[in-house]
Amino acid sequence: MKQSTDGGARRAVFAPVDNRARVDAVVRRLGDAIELGLLADGEQLPGESELAGQLGVSTVTLREALMALRQQGLVTTRRGRGGGSFVSLPEDPGEERLRVRLRGWSPEELRDLGDHWAALSGTSARLAADRTEPDDLVQLHRTAVELSQAPDPAACSRMYGRFHVELAAAAQSARLTREQVALQTEVGALLCLVLGDDEYREEVADRHRSVISAVQDGAHDSARELAERCVQESTARLIAVRLAL
Amino acid sequence: MRSSPGLVGTATPTLDAPTQEQVAARVGDALEAVFDAVAETRADATELLTRVAARQRRPATADLAALRPGLHLRLTRQELVSGVGFVAAPGLLTDVPSWLEWWQSGAEGDLKPLLLDLDPQHSAYSDYTHWDWFALPRDTGRRAVAGPYVDYLCSDEYSLTLSAPVEVAGRFVGVAAADVYLRHFEAAALPLLRRLPGPAYLVNARGRVAASADPAHLAGSLTKGPDFAGVLERARPADFDGMRLFPCHGIPLVLVTAAR
User: What is the domain range of residue B205?
Assistant: First the structure.
């Protein structure tokens, strides 16, 4: 007998495919803007329909995103006259908030993120070894230097991400580069949690320098292996932090 | 009509097949049209910034809005151009440390401004002064073709960027530039390359393939060995190890075919 399947699962099938992704994108965009101080503590956000229009999402998507931001304590909503949504910067330090974010990832999801990252960076390094000449490596050298000189974990993680984006660009692949940029928006902030260790930061800088050398020598197999190992080590450390939470 | 089996592989050029020189010239013409858009932007920016300087004040981002009608016109009129604008030298404008007055055409032909986070506190990509499209015109004082390269700053596309320095009273103040996505350039160059009797491709001064009708040398790969920069400097055809090299007049691309 055929069962009536008019329940939630069926509705989910016909929901706009990227709705969840849109909500997450809005949460991340506004969340990052608040964390970074682009939106000031206490600042009133534009009205729902105006904000939804500016972000190019439906009001339903925006409402879901605001609900998530309220749960994270980054937005408060007051009703009635003079009401609306307001930015509220939490008082706990950045590292504590990052740990909260990390808790949102299961160890399995982090392992999978690491696999994706290793695939992107490993392949990028292999292709770059075939497709670069010395002038193409100037950016990577500069980023490796800035990484070892970064004043704090946040700056270090920005350089870490930029290195891997530049590596994908050196591979001459727009697709790998776009994937790497997208991946860095997910993993970038979390990496701050493992880059606070000075010794490890220097190790990461060394690993990046050895990737550059292999690329420069056209040694595509070792370039791939070195890039993969660099990424796998960082992911393993991140998972260790996650498991200790 | 197909040739008889006995003639397969000889591929004798027909009477109307172009010569390598003609193909190189027509590739050059296609990019000269893009350089026209760069030159117009450069002229507009020079005029605007000279006018502001004559009023004894420094320019701000609001002043650059006057460039928009021209930029929009070039984006809609020039088929190969997908992005166009003026990129200020850091420190030029009073209200921001750095700025790109940059417009792009979207998938549906809509025009939109590029809005970048150029704050070094948040963005790892705030310094754009090392990119070839900025550094080459600044350092040489001449127009330049950058790429092919993956443009992860502005378009996320594999691109060529054509640019020229903008100077006011002898001082470098930024560059005028236009983006050509490589797939569009290849679409324009491929019909020309395929009319040649043998496999042919175009490389930049560093030997990076920019468009190819040769499956053994695809766009993005490197051709090592010949001194392509030297061929461009001498502006004369040359031979290297079974390759015939033709410089595109005025444009830093070299047409590579088999020597025969």
Answer: 195-258
